[in-house]
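[agent] plan:
  1. take the single chain provided in the ticket
  2. run structure prediction with default settings
  3. attach structure tokens to the ticket
  4. add a short note for the reviewer (M.T.)
[agent] executing step 1
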Amino acid sequence: MMPIGLGDPIVLLDLKKGRRKNIIVEDKVIKIKGFGVFNPKDFTGKEYGDIVYLGNKPVLLQPPSVVECIKGLKRKAQIILPKDSGLIALYANVGPGSIVVEGGIGSGGLTIVLANFVRPTGKVISYDINEEFFKIAYYNLRVVGLHEYVDMKLKDIKEGIDESNVDAVVLDIPEPWDVVEHARNALKPFGHFVAYVPTIEQARKTYLELKNQGFYNLEIVELLMRNILVKPLGTRPDNKVIGHTGYIIAGRKLRD
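[agent] step 2 finished; step 3 output follows
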């Protein structure tokens, strides 16, 4: 395995507390909550799998994977968890070569999943009105090596979608119903629409607008998840359940 160099991504794993944090190896002192103050340049020459000490904390240097990168994202906005983002990508029927329009990039959690599905020949075109979100999302995409599959547009998607004949439109914005008509115009025949919202009222309003615009195969779903604990005296579900996070609304466009 090649030694770690400047510009390489690393997922730091605190072996005592299980914390994760994504970084890119650069020659500058940084401060990360839970990891302290350090210069990532000190990791150059080491290899993935090595254990280093930050203060008295043993930290594993990991190569990035999509799920671990999402768990350790640099955040400016709440992210969509892997349990939901994976299902969103499936409902959007995203695969290699797909052209996907995304509304609301946030910290890039869902963008990473979509970009991972569309590579090596597809593209995610992400709209947002917050330039600061683009900076954070781009950093996170660089960590996992997926930035080249994403184009970013500083524009309110409610004002219209510039692209046409796209495979899917995926939205994580407060008022997705305002984009349904734009999505219908941008999608190819039988293309997929998926939105993610936190409240059932938003889900209902989006569903009804999709129906009004002639979409079919309409669904609203919610996914709950809990971990399983494996211990010497027995195996059982964890008492902590990842309960309600959001509703997924999905539908397909009929041919024109």
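[agent] step 4 note for reviewer: The helical segments are 66-71, 82-91, 109-118, 131-144, 180-186, 200-212.
[agent] ticket updated
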